[in-house]
Amino acid sequence: MKAIVFHHYGSPDVLKCEEIARPTAGDNEVLIKVRAAALNPYDWHFMRGMPYLIRAMAGLRKPKVTRLGFDVAGQVEAVGRKVTQFKPGDPVFGACAGARAGAFAEYACTSESALAMKPHNVTFEQAAAVPMCALTALQGLRDKGHIKPGQKVLVNGAAGGVGSLAVQIAKSFGTEVTGVCSTRNVDMVRSIGADHVIDYTQQDFTKRGHRYDLILDAVGNRPLSAMRRILSSNGILVMAGGQAGRWMIGPVARAIQASLLSRFGSQKLVGLLARASKEDLSIMRDLMAAGKVTPVIDRRYKLNEVPAAIRYLEEGHARGKVVISFDDSHKASNQIETTSNFRRVPAGLDTSGGQVGHQSRIRGKKVVVRQLPRQDPGHLLKDRRHDLVVGVYLRGKEANFEFLSRIAISMRDPR
Ligand SMILES: NC(=O)c1ccc[n+]([C@@H]2O[C@H](COP(=O)([O-])OP(=O)(O)OC[C@H]3O[C@@H](n4cnc5c(N)ncnc54)[C@H](OP(=O)(O)O)[C@@H]3O)[C@@H](O)[C@H]2O)c1
Question: From CA 62, how far away is CA 49, in angstroms rounded?
Fold first, then answer.
């Protein structure tokens, strides 16, 4: 099978797409025919062996595990003899962790306990986009942040992999959510349910005089003193991400400072290390099945394009998730997606300015424009008479095409 392999730490140039032996499932393991995998900063940290602390477990001079890729979705190919919950053919998603890293391959093996069934209403690409980021967002909000209905929640980094899921998960808990992102992502963050969006290029969210009961910080770019200023008196700051640098000096100093500050006063500043959890993957499956969480896909790459995909992710401005797709038609869908680019009518798609009910054809497919209730893009998939349903919501006279790509992808693979 083809797989991404690396034998030295370094830039994406160390990644090679090679022919290697297909793994075999151990007693408690499942062999998956990979349909999609997703990228995380975690992958490039291991690729670069940075921060250096990683090398203490991953190998001092060179990586002990020569494969990459944590997030996976695909079909069960074979199961170990003690596996009880899955059978060949089942659509699954989950994590290839530790020694079983290797989702960037045609086949991947992982423990039965690291997988859940893929809901029918999301694609393999969407399902692959979930595991690491959703575990981080869910465990951060629920376990560390003790999220409660009615609370005011702020997500810093709301447009990224963790943030775009955190916004939707926080909404599912019945909270009032504020997302922080740059100008180009304001509409997207609003479209996934944020009640308020702060454009960090225009405003410093720590200087607006608003207070929050819970902050999930996936960026870590503001001093803790400023973050405390915008926490309510019993508020909780969950520190999910930040710039680690080579030596982790910044994050370690920040963690020590946070632990000291938490001892005085009623506010809590806590770190987070997400853990694999079958129960939490099942919760995410249910949230997706109910249409409460719809992963946002930014770009798709093929297996041999993993180095380019990692370069893009490393720039730090992915909009939702970057996925590796094994679907041959992904090129066509990419064209739809990248040209949609929110608010702009995609080339070749005549939607008459987003007039609801308007019908047209794109590449021979029947397309219809439907109005989108903001919280429920899932209902558009029920339209069986059309190949593609364009979701718009109308703000004044302006049609907003932000769900185009996601709906398009769902229609392409509606299982
Ligand atoms: N603690 C854990 O267990 C755990 C688990 C997973 C990930 N993480 C960490 O969490 C962090 C986020 O991960 P991710 O997967 O979400 O990364 P990501 O998808 O690469 O994040 C990119 C996003 O960050 C946003 N961003 C960049 N600068 C920003 C700023 N100044 N203010 C607000 N948003 C900004 C970008 O939005 P714009 O383009 O709009 O700027 C972009 O959408 C990383 O540091 C990662 O290592 C931690």
Answer: 8
